[in-house]
Write a structure and sequence with these properties.
The chain has 252 residues and is of the alpha/beta class. It is built from 10 helices and 10 strands. The chain has a single domain, classed as P-loop containing nucleotide triphosphate hydrolases (Rossmann fold, 3-Layer(aba) Sandwich). The strands form 2 sheets. A 6-stranded mixed β-sheet has the order 6-7-8-3-9-10, with helices on both faces. The protein has a 4-stranded antiparallel β-sheet with strand order 2-1-4-5, with helices on one face. Helix 3 packs parallel to helix 6, helix 4 packs antiparallel against helix 6 and helix 6 runs parallel beside helix 7. Bound molecules: adenosine-5'-triphosphate and magnesium ion (MG).
């Protein structure tokens, strides 16, 4: 059973962003992958993080779950400084990352993959409720609970990876390229599920190369360019921005 959380987050201030990132710098050896990334996500928002290959999108998400350390800057979640925390502690605080490339367990069944996501749950009933929520989000998974994860299609594996993260009942879900390599129809279904996850009260920060799809679901977005935020704004404004259209929407 999980004991009371040791970090004692302060009572939530409704005006404070849930996630507040200020001037994060990340180095890989001598290379600065992030020079200074500042962004925030308010409770209940869906926010998109877009940018070209190598801009630092994945690095930003990996730094937030403490897989890579930052060398300057600050990030708080619900008022708690993330810098001294381990990846596991960040998960316990309520942040879940769905990494690029659908890291599921291919030899475990869909049900087993989902149950692993719920390891923080105290009891079987909570696990069952979470499983029902995921099956509602992704009926295709419900039809395939006994199937091995590795035999799912690419799109279904992405659904499973997201479903597993949802099983942990996060308050902030970080998604890295959920539509990568997936047929447009399934990608749209995945984004509809992201919309439903957000409607259930989960805050979402989503990294995407499919800029249009991401900005259609997100209310706001940030454009990363070589490790810095080059632009930010309401999704509609970004979709209408000539530079964004030229660079990330194929000029359309
Ligand atoms: N483990 C690593 N070691 C060294 N350099 C790295 C490492 N991971 C990423 N980088 C470098 O950091 C920069 C940012 O990479 P990152 O993966 O964050 O970009 P990205 O925006 O997610 O790109 P993509 O759209 O291709 O996924 C790149 O120049 C990359 O080569
Ligand atoms: Mg990436």
């Amino acid at each position: 059973m999980r004991t009371a959380h040791p970090f004692r987050p302060p009572p939530p201030d409704r005006d404070e962003p849930l996630l507040d990132v200020a001037g994060i710098e990340v180095r890989y050896g001598g290379i600065r992958a992030l020079t200074s990334v500042s962004l925030h996500v308010r409770r209940g928002e869906v926010v998109a993080l877009i940018g070209a290959n190598g801009a630092g999108k994945t690095t930003t998400l990996r730094s937030l779950v403490r897989v890579v350390p930052w060398s300057a800057g600050r990030a708080t979640f619900n008022g708690v400084d993330l810098s001294p925390l381990s990846t596991e502690e960040v998960t316990e605080l309520g942040i879940s990352l769905v990494p690029e490339g659908r890291a599921i367990f291919p030899n475990l069944t869909v049900r087993e993959n989902l149950e692993i996501g719920a390891y923080l749950h105290r009891n079987k009933q909570a696990m069952q409720e979470s499983l029902e929520d995921v099956v509602k989000l992704f009926p295709r998974l419900g039809e395939r609970l006994a199937q091995e994860g590795g035999t799912l299609s690419g799109g279904e594996q992405q659904m499973l990876a997201i479903g597993r993260a949802v099983m942990a009942r996060p308050s902030l879900l970080l998604l890295d390229e959920p539509s990568l390599g997936i047929a447009p129809k399934l990608a749209r279904q995945i984004f509809e599920a992201i919309r439903a996850i957000a409607a259930s009260g989960v805050t979402v920060l989503v990294v995407e190369q499919n800029t249009r799809l991401a900005l259609e679901v997100a209310a706001r977005g940030y454009v990363l360019r070589t490790g810095e935020v080059a632009k930010e704004g309401a999704s509609k404004a970004l979709l209408d921005d000539p530079e964004v259209r030229e660079a990330y929407l194929g000029g359309h």
